[in-house]
Amino acid sequence: MYEGRNTELAMQHFPIFLNLAGRRVVLSGGGETAVAKLRLLLKTEARLTVFATEPCDQVRAWADAGRITLVGRAFGPGDALCAALAYAANDDAGQDARVARLARADGALVNIVDNLGDSQFITPAIVDRDPVTVAIGTEGAAPVLARAIKRDLEERLPATLGPLARIGKAFRGAVEALPFGKPRRDFWQEYYFATGPRTIEAGEDAVPPALGALLARHLDTPEARGVVDFVGAGPGDPDLLTLKARKALDKADVVIHDRLVTPEILELARREAVLVDAGKEGFGRAMAQDEINRLIVAHAREGAHVVRLKSGDPTVFGRLDEEIEAVEAAGLDWAIVPGITAASAAVAGIGQSLTKRARNSSVRVMTGHDMKGFADHDWRALARAGEVAAIYMGKRSARFVQGRLLMHGADPLTPVSVVENASRPEQRVLATTLAQLEPTLTQAGLDGPAIILFGLAPRRAAALARSLDTPDVTSEEIAL
Ligand code: SAH
């Protein structure tokens, strides 16, 4: 069967970068539309010939300056012979159709400006950082989108990128002295994102010597040393990743991740990165901590950039210290990239704050169970009115926490919210009270990660309870 014929999937326009140096390019038209196209074409080394009976001043000026050849008559048969490209830019549909027909007959590829359907090729939106050129095409479907992407890239790509790339290109041969793969990648990474942008501020002349020094330093380093980034992946929504986390994922050679890190986030890792699932289930099954420590160190020792990707914030119930100790003992460099912890995502999900004037000026981040089993806390302090706690890994220990708090005098009607899959499309919120926490939780049969927010009701339920003039919020599920 012949593949690639599915028109729904087919790319109508195949993007290429055409070398126009010395090639003939013809354009029919002498008004504003023609000027806009010519401005772009003048960035190339094409031999431009313009046919116009009434050329505007700008077109005349370019002709006087010898930048284009101006022919003061209408486009005719044979005018596009030997031309690589022909543009019909007459602002007149009839004229354009005539020019297109003639140019096609001469064997040129034809573009009618602002007429996608009758054009053989289109000129994309361009971000120009010569020699880096980004072309954006939407098959004419969404020019607004193309413009937005262009604007975004214009902002994101520093203006110095062009000169840096040009200078870098001249250095390519010398850099071959570095071993292929990671050492070279590291060198270029440091050049484009650190040394280059820093030195070019003092002028382009400052860059080559700095590049030389950088290369000498990289050649001196006996062997690339790995690094470990302990990165917070946030609660699950990829939009809640920090820019730093994204950058770390972009650079990673190996990503060792938790069970709770969502596939959408793993998608963002560098394509060549090796993904290792160190998924730990609740009460310590799956990969043992020692084994994870060993893996991190082994990969980093081989010179890899290891991203240890943990759900939420790595410093919250992440067994981070054990891993840092292992990495330190191996003499490796490491850094922590904080993330949005589940408690932050969960309170956002119920429209509340973790702290509030005149209600609670402190908040407890706690777990219902630790490695030894149920974790003990200062229950009496927590039982006081107005206290707030975010209880991680709370599903299994809800009954224990509930019992302890009631025993130490907490109000049975204290509001409690349970947020499952905070920030994810499947987010669920249970609004209940301390007295009802169990059996509500068990009955709900949650199967995703859930956090218990003690002392907080979803804003809507809080409002509902007030309006009914009773603090007793019944156990209900609120679809937010
Ligand atoms: N370092 C993580 C917590 C790891 S402990 C952080 O900062 O969020 C794992 C516990 O985190 C789970 O048992 C659950 O209580 C909580 N958790 C993680 N992601 C969650 C999510 N998306 N929604 C609700 N709770 C979550």
UniProtKB/TrEMBL annotation:
Keywords: Cobalamin biosynthesis, Lyase, Methyltransferase, Multifunctional enzyme, NAD, Oxidoreductase, Porphyrin biosynthesis, S-adenosyl-L-methionine, Transferase. Pathway: Porphyrin-containing compound metabolism; siroheme biosynthesis; sirohydrochlorin from precorrin-2: step 1/1; Porphyrin-containing compound metabolism; siroheme biosynthesis; precorrin-2 from uroporphyrinogen III: step 1/1. Residues 161-205 form the Sirohaem synthase dimerisation domain. The active site is at D258 (proton acceptor), K280 (proton donor). GO terms for biological process: cobalamin biosynthetic process; methylation; siroheme biosynthetic process. InterPro entries: 4pyrrol_Mease (IPR000878), 4pyrrol_Methylase_sf (IPR035996), 4pyrrole_Mease_sub1 (IPR014777), 4pyrrole_Mease_sub2 (IPR014776), CobA/CysG_C (IPR006366), NAD(P)-bd_dom_sf (IPR036291), Siro_Cobalamin_biosynth (IPR050161), Sirohaem_synth (IPR012409). Residues 230-437 form the Tetrapyrrole methylase domain. Gene3D superfamilies: Cobalt-precorrin-4 Transmethylase, Domain 1, Methyltransferase, Cobalt-precorrin-4 Transmethylase, Domain 2, NAD(P)-binding Rossmann-like Domain, Siroheme synthase, domain 2. Pfam families: CysG_dimeriser (PF10414), NAD_binding_7 (PF13241), TP_methylase (PF00590). GO terms for molecular function: NAD binding; precorrin-2 dehydrogenase activity; sirohydrochlorin ferrochelatase activity; uroporphyrin-III C-methyltransferase activity. Signal peptide: none annotated. It catalyses: precorrin-2 + NAD(+) = sirohydrochlorin + NADH + 2 H(+). This is Siroheme synthase. It comes from Roseisalinus antarcticus.
